[in-house]
Amino acid sequence: MKKLNSNQSGIALMIVLWVLVLLMALATEFAFSMKMEVNTTRNYKEDTESYYLAKAGLNLALAELLKDASFHSIHDEHGWIMGAGKSGETPSADAEKAPTEGDGGFDIVNRTDIELGNGTVTYTIKDENGKISINSSSKIILNKLLAYSGVKKKLDQDIISDSILDWIDSNKNHRLNGAEDDYYRTQNPPYLAKNGKLETLSELLKVRGVTEEIFYGSPEGEGEYKGIAQFLTIYKFASINPNTTSAEVLNFIYTPEQVAEILKNRAEKGYHSNSLSTIFRITSTGKVRGSRTEHTLETVIEKTGSGNNAKMVAHYWNDNVLDL
Predict the structure, then answer these.
(1) Cα Rg of the chain (Å, integer)
(2) How far is CA 6 from CA 9, 169, 198, 201, in A?
(3) What's the confidence (pLDDT) of residue 252?
(4) What per-residue string of b and e applies to 133-160 under the rule 16 or more CB within 10 Å gives b?
(5) How far apart are CA 83 and CA 106, in angstroms?
(6) Cα→Cα distances 123→47, 58, 63, 286, 287, Å
(7) Dist CA 176 CA 192 (whole Å)
(8) DSSP 61
(9) Which own/partner contact pairs does 227-233 have at CB distance under 8 Å and 24+ positions apart?
(10) Which helix (DSSP H) or strand (DSSP E) does residue 236 occupy?
């Protein structure tokens, strides 16, 4: 009987040990699950906070754009700026010589790391009127852009520019070097020409002759293409703004003498003419203090009217810009 009792005691001890192991595993799993729940909840809370901080940045940008201005321009140090005063008014001579905040000439605003609530806001305003409107461009300008971007052969330039114009126009008749349905049906997989306005710039990758290198540019140090996407916009406007246009785009549109004058005025005064832009790309990032969490929003806004009649129309909205 003593031997039997000894065996039973050993079995009981093993059962107790296994129960303890099981309880420890359950406790560990529970603790890990709770930690995950806490992290998920905190991340959701901080992402929501950063989202609304980013929205606050968009509203700060809209408040800027709603102001009356004498011109819109790009400043070497401060980025996008607006001339104080109403359209048609020229800043004073003293203001032109000293483009600083509050001098009555340039309305310069801090848009970086603005303290707000439990975090900071950073936003940028970029001018779409400083780019080439692809949906209303001419073949001459497209060929100049293609030549600058690295498409050297004239025939290749004509094929791409004619094909872009064929893609956008409403008829099915292709230009001399262009392409319509008969060409695109031979592709794998086959598709049809849009015969309508571009809704996104990436649609150009479907157009005959446009490669990823021509569109985006060659990888640094691995090719000769500069990329055409950076100079283009799908949005249509009355006229390009010479104050905000890059030197490259100026050379596609104006004569060398005009380009030299525009760049000279921009360098000396901060602007060339009392030109106002109407379409703007706003990017805003909200960051929570003490956290790595941040949220970025992007929108394209068109301003119509002025003063009390000014209105803002959103053409594009991205609620979550991913920096991949």
Answers:
(1) 30
(2) 5, 95, 86, 82
(3) 94
(4) bbbebebebbbbbbeebbbeeeeebbbb
(5) 5
(6) 17, 7, 13, 9, 11
(7) 19
(8) H
(9) 227/149, 228/145, 228/146, 228/149, 228/204, 229/201, 229/204, 231/131, 231/132, 231/145, 232/131, 232/132, 232/133, 232/134, 232/145, 232/201, 233/128, 233/131, 233/132, 233/133, 233/134, 233/201, 233/279
(10) none
**What is the pTM assigned to this prediction?**
0.81
* Cα–Cα distance for residue pair 3/16, rounded to 1 Å: 20
Question: Which run of H or E residues covers position 85?
Answer: none
C-alpha distances (whole Å) from 39 to each of 43, 75, 100, 313 are: 6, 43, 46, 38
Residue ranges of the chain with per-residue pLDDT less than 70: 1-8, 38, 86-105, 221, 323-324
In single-letter form, the type of residue at position 7 comes to: N
Residue 91 structure tokens: 């800043």
Instruction: Fill in the amino acid letter for 52.
Output: Y
β-pair type (114-116, 132-133): unpaired
What pLDDT is recorded for position 103? 42
